[in-house]
Amino acid sequence: xxxxxxxxxxxxxxxxxxxxxxxxxxxxxxxxxxxxxxxxxxxxxxxxxxxxxxxxxxxxxxxxxxxxxxxxxxxxxxxxxxxxxxxxxxxxxxxxxxxxxxxxxxxxxxxxxxxxxxxxxxxxxxxxxxxxxxxxxxxxxxxxxxxxxxxxxxxxxxxxxxxxxxxxxxxxxxxxxxxxxxxxxxxxxxxxxxxxxxxxxxxxxxxxxxxxxxxxxxxxxxxxxxxxxxxxxxxxxxxxxxxxxxxxxxxxxxxxxxxxxxxxxxxxxxxxxxxxxxxxx
Length: 281
Hints:
The protein is 44% helix and 14% strand. It has 9 helices and 8 strands.
């Protein structure tokens, strides 16, 4: 993809692999919408991109709040009438307070809320803008760490573990990827998910007590491949391990499970299925 004059939103781009992706996109000529929670770090990234001749703006939002996700979408729409690429990269790992169950501002299990539901809502809110910019791409940064969703206890009120919560939320991203790709078939919008690299040298990995053994540059290469490679301009609904197409957990290919997750997600964000169909049509 030619990056000049393309507008790209990268969530979670004030640190880690998201920061590297944002900086490379800016260096390539794209207008980058940098997202994070910390304004000072966001301004630092914007300044770094601009110092190298790139264009960037910072948008603050805490994705643990659906209201803030909606405000982020409003801020994007206020700043641009085009969005060629959306990279849903922001996430919460298994370190820090993950040993105990946490909830979002809306009362949902935190990792499900941030890693999956926020991206689901943000994508839904920005879909009309993305469709107006076709050909366009949506990239969901998931993980090779996946666990089948327990629809009887999706908020993990029983038998909670941070690893289980993380792996379930990442598989939910992949189910969403395949489901949305089917809905957007023929629109010129591709939707793909990936595991960028294993145990990258990021704050998330270090907080989990794991010694990093992959670089953020390797992960950024994989994300940028899905976001910009001409070879992927017509491939959609795929899951990649790095830059290689791979297979996700079997539940990702269960149409009934995908429909069930979609219906539940719409309910959780307070949106009707009819409204969803209107955005996708």
